[in-house]
Structures are given as C-alpha cells and as structure tokens.
Amino acid sequence: MIPNKKAVVLSSGGIDSTTAMAIAKHGGYKLYSLSFFYGQRHAVELEAAKKVADAMAVTEHLVINIDLKKIGGSSLTDDIDVPKDRHEQEMSRGIPVTYVPARNTIFLAFALAWAEVLKSSDIFIGVNAIDYSGYPDCRPEYVEAFERMANLATKACVEGISTIRIRTPLIRLTKAQIIQKGMELGVDYGLTHSCYDPSKQGLACGRCDSCRLRKKGFKEAGISDPISYV
User: What's the rounded Cα separation, in Å, for the pair 168 and 217?
Assistant: First the structure.
C-alpha cells in the first residue's frame, strides 16, 4: 500500500479503464478520475464513468469538454458508419475508422496537467496491446515515448519535484484476463459501457468491434456479461 499517494486515472466507463482504476485503488492510491466529452456518439459512456467513480469512491471525478467533432476523421466523432459484425481477423488488420486522431495523446496531456497541479506522479490508463482494435496509441512504445516527453515538459519534473509515471497495468493482458483481474478486485462490470454505437436507450449494439471484444472477453473468462444488449 502507498499511503496518501494520488493517481489520476483516465476513465471512459469501460472495462479496461474501470479495471485500471480498481488496480490503482487496490494499490492504495487516492483516486482522481478524469473523463472527456469530446463529441463522441457514445457519450452515454460518461454516465457509466460517473457510476464507476461513485462506486470507487474517488476523491474527485472531472469531466472535460473538448469538441473533437470539429476535427472529425473518426466514426466516433464524424458522419462515418461504425463497422459492425467484423471477424476477429478483420479487427486485427490495420487501423479502423473508430480510431480518433491523437485521442490518447490529448487525454494524457490533460491528465498530465492535472497530475502536476495535484502533485501526483502517477497517471493510470487502461490501454491494452493484445485484445484491442489496432490503435497506435495503445502500444507500449507509445506510452514509453509519452512518459519521456512528460518528464521533459513539466515544471515539476524539470525542477526535480516529481517524476511522472504512466501506469499501464493491463497492457499485456487479454480481455479475459482483464475481466478476471477485475472480478478478483470486486469490480461491478454491470456499471460499465463499451459500445461505440449504442441505441437511443443506451443499450449496447453487440455488433461493433468494442462489443465483440467485450463479449469475447467474458466468454473466455467464463463469466456472464452483466449488461444488456439490443
């Protein structure tokens, strides 16, 4: 346990970020949850992030508005169809249109700023390099590069007050292993949301890449998925 240690945790209300938050909580960190409304079509995820923050008893849950719809270039923020019913082999080839340009770089930059103000050395992000959709900003080499940059870019680091660490506890785990780890830590996955293209009622479509990876993870973990689908 690390008494009185603060962590900024990026939270989308999904499986990965929620499990990363549970790991930080179990490690004794005081939690500061950071979410974004960035014009995403699945903004219902912010409701899940709020429920997760409440369940984890975070010290503060901050939601920042960034209008990435003005930039577009992704089916999550632009008038582009979300891919459906893709096979695992298809999902593992190339970078899909659900990739939001520079999203993790933007999110981590905000997390870095908040961490410096909080005098926190630790930023948790639930990126995963195994069961994921091919996003370039989920790879270990990307995270390592951002961490190096962070320690060159902030007053606290340059003055030797702190050293920033980007914590990626899930990066080498399969989705099933992530779910199993979360269950061990008492995570209620019924609070989470994963779907890229939910119904107007907020129900998961069950057909987008994110839903398919989620269902695959629960099946391989031998655990029933507690959320409802269309």
Answer: 19
